[in-house]
Backbone:
């Protein structure tokens, strides 16, 4: 039940601001954001140690951000199934949906953003759709882009992100980032609330599933900032991963 919030404002100093909330089994191992992939040395992101890929990748040189969510539809045949975790890496490197046959992937939504715009590709196991998101705030969930607000998370959080102070890719410290950090961290809603972005559930088999990390990325024409929260229940775990241009 991952969630991506993205705001696109053409002509703004920081045209793109993206929040990515990752939900996963607590037992699934991962590493925090870094340049983990020799094949893609310019890219930075958290690494999923089960399959080696990522859920969100940033190319500081673009700047470009690519984020992946699981989708709904027909699973890929077991004999040819591949991890979807390579898609954000390839998309961040290319700036668009990677070429090739998608039938080896389970359904997904892949969002790719740069200062010039935001695109969303959705694959349901049969066909792929391509949407260019208009200006404004948008929320993407596992069922897709929800412009109508039918998902309770969308109905509750979209107007709050829309009215919050916009993070600047050039700011240092919490500064203009405070409001988006607070909202992306759940805005104080209980993890069991149907509107919650940050969730936690104990499954019948004893495993725990819930929000494992939160990412905030802001893109300007010649600036980028990437913040990461490794313990969603602890606001003090937010840290700046990188900023371009680097602070003096």
Residues:
């Amino acid at each position: 039940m991952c969630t991506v919030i993205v705001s696109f404002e053409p002509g703004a100093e920081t045209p793109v601001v993206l929040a990515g909330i990752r939900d996963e089994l607590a037992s699934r191992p991962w590493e925090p954001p870094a340049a983990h992939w020799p094949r893609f040395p310019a890219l930075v992101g958290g690494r999923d140690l089960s399959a080696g890929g990522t859920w969100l990748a940033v190319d500081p040189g673009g700047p470009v951000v690519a984020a992946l969510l699981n989708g709904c539809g027909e699973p890929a045949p077991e004999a040819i199934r591949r991890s979807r975790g390579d898609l954000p890496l390839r998309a961040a490197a290319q700036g668009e949906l990677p070429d090739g046959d998608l039938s080896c992937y389970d359904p997904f939504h892949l969002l790719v953003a740069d200062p010039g715009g935001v695109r969303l590709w959705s694959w349901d196991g049969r066909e792929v759709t391509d949407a260019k998101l208009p200006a404004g705030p948008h929320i993407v969930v596992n069922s897709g882009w929800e412009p109508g607000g039918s998902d309770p998370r969308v109905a509750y959080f979209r107007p709050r992100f829309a009215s919050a102070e916009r993070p600047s890719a050039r700011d240092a410290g919490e500064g203009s980032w405070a409001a988006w950090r607070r909202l992306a961290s759940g805005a104080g809603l209980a993890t069991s609330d149907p509107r919650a972005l940050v969730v936690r559930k104990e499954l019948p088999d004893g495993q725990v599933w819930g929000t494992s990390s939160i990412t905030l990325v802001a893109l300007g024409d010649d600036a980028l900032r990437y913040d990461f929260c490794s313990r969603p229940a602890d606001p003090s775990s937010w840290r700046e991963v990188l900023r371009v241009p680097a602070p003096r």
